[in-house]
Write a structure and sequence with these properties.
Structural class: mainly alpha
CATH superfamily of the largest domain: Fumarase/aspartase (Central domain)
Number of strands: 6
Largest sheet: 2 strands, antiparallel
Bound molecules: arginine
Helix content: 55-70%
Number of helices: 19
CATH topology of the largest domain: Fumarase C, Chain A, domain 2
Distance between the termini: 63 Å
Strand content: under 5%
Length: about 450
């Protein structure tokens, strides 16, 4: 019974809570990570209620100083969590009361843990998404640096994992940087939606003491206040969005990792992963495994699970706050932890890998220029469909003559079409092939350099 009396909401209870239920109900193990935001939010809220006369100057000072002491304890690792500390909010308030006495009981006037928890999470997520943006920008800077320096390296481009057309290695790098640049923009947009203050919504109905929420928002660095108290106490859109952002970003990184895993095989040998991001086999001494990339690919599934799981938690909830929402923090923290590790590892992998230009150039073959033969004919005025058919015949002819297309005598080619001429020789040059793609987004050098500028500008990397 003593235990229940000690609970901050225990007043109307006469019976004891099942000890297992106490554990089941508690979120302190997870949400203690919000200690700083909880204290900062409380200090600003104390000022807001003092402004409407609910606290004297002395009471306000005592609450602010007391909360500073609580913060010091968290920072120095001396804060002692008690069995009755259900969550970070009750833990901080309990400790404040021990430090400054009954005045601590005034802090929660007009506030509910419903608007408090959502405020703490938004403050935390705002900063966390800023850190993730920094990690993402660092990774993108490596993509851009390599794409600039290694622009002359050519490689086979694949569709259906079959050799398709010749592309620049930089073009491949920028294909991944492009999706990451959208991820960065999405996170920047999401961060704006995070920065809206729910505090002052109370449990459901709003704040009855006329506090100035705009001023409170300004104190805490929010851009504005939430529109409707019933919505804002149950609104977890930003958590759903954040876990989805993480899912999409991981999916992009997973595809990048998969490409690199393939390119790092002996069969391809396009790239060489640095020892720093590889591991060996306990059985086969010759093995060097791309574990960093496999873990990135694997963790994409875990983050997807956070997103799907939380969306299911939200689906079908009645309006406003329900305890189901307490499940939000684990998904948010896990998504952050995984993404922050993955982005840093990806940066290390990309910085240290070596591209084997001899191998990527050696992997090019004339069959990849069949499209160029068709384009050659198009430039001579042959309609594309016809040119495509004729180029196919050239491939077939080379196969039946057991030689490469470039070895076919002009006379034989002219028996297929009189549009073939001696200048066809230019087509067998891989550099000539990539340099045709000058339109925006293509693989010519000029176009690739423009893509670099566009990505830099779009992401504020200039
Ligand atoms: N620990 C709770 C959570 O994270 C705080 C809000 C509790 N609200 C309530 N009405 N019991 O969701």
């Amino acid at each position: 019974m003593e235990g229940e009396k000690a609970l901050l909401w225990g007043g109307r209870f006469t019976g004891a809570t099942d000890p297992l239920m106490v554990q089941f109900n508690a979120s302190i193990g997870v949400d203690k990570r919000l200690f700083l935001e909880d204290i900062q939010g409380s200090q600003a809220y104390a000022k807001a209620i003092a402004r409407v006369g609910l606290l004297t100057d002395d009471e306000l000072q005592s609450i602010i100083d007391g909360l500073d002491k609580v913060l010091e304890e968290w920072n120095s690792g001396t804060f002692e969590i008690q069995k009755t500390d259900e969550d970070i909010h009750t833990a901080n308030e309990r400790r404040l009361k021990e430090l400054i006495g009954a005045i601590a009981g005034k802090l929660h006037t007009g506030r509910s843990r419903n608007d408090q928890v959502s405020t703490d999470m938004r403050m935390w997520l705002y900063k966390a998404s800023g850190r993730l943006q920094d990690f993402l920008k660092k990774l993108m800077a490596v993509f851009i640096e390599r794409a600039t320096v290694e622009v002359d390296i050519l490689m086979p481009g694949y569709t259906h994992l079959q050799r398709a057309q010749v592309v620049r290695w930089s073009h491949w790098l920028l294909s991944h940087a492009s999706s990451l640049s959208r991820d960065l923009q999405r996170l920047q947009q999401l961060q704006k939606r995070v920065n809206v203050l729910p505090l002052g919504s109370g449990a459901i109905a709003g704040n009855p003491f006329g506090i100035d929420r705009e001023l409170l928002a300004k104190d805490l660095g929010f851009d504005g206040v939430s529109l409707n108290s019933m919505d804002s106490t149950g609104d977890r859109d930003i958590i759903a969005e954040f876990t989805f952002w993480g899912t999409l970003t991981m999916m992009h990184l997973s595809k990048w990792a998969e490409d690199l895993i393939i390119y790092s095989t002996k069969e391809f040998s396009f790239i060489h992963l640095s020892d720093a991001y590889s591991t060996g086999s306990s059985l086969m001494p010759q093995k060097k495994n791309p574990d960093s990339l496999e873990l990135i690919r694997g963790k994409a599934g875990s983050v997807f699970g956070k997103c799907a799981g939380f969306l299911v938690t939200l689906k079908g909830l009645p309006s406003t706050y329900n305890k189901d929402l307490q499940e939000d923090k684990q998904g948010m923290f896990d998504t952050y932890d995984i993404l922050s590790a993955v982005l840093q590892i990806a940066t290390g992998v990309l910085t240290t890998l070596q591209v084997n230009a001899c191998q990527t150039h050696g992997a090019l073959s004339e069959d990849m220029l069949a499209t160029d033969v068709a384009y050659y004919l198009v430039r001579k005025g042959v309609p594309f469909r016809e040119a495509h058919g004729l180029a196919g015949k050239v491939v077939q002819l080379a196969e039946s003559e057991k030689c490469s297309m470039s070895e076919l005598p002009l006379g034989k080619l002219q028996s297929l079409s009189l549009s073939f001429d001696s200048d066809l020789a230019n087509v067998w040059d891989y550099n000539h092939s990539v340099e045709q793609y000058t339109s925006a987004g293509g693989t010519s050098k000029e176009s690739v350099m423009k893509q670099i500028e566009n990505i830099k500008a779009g992401c504020g990397l200039v």
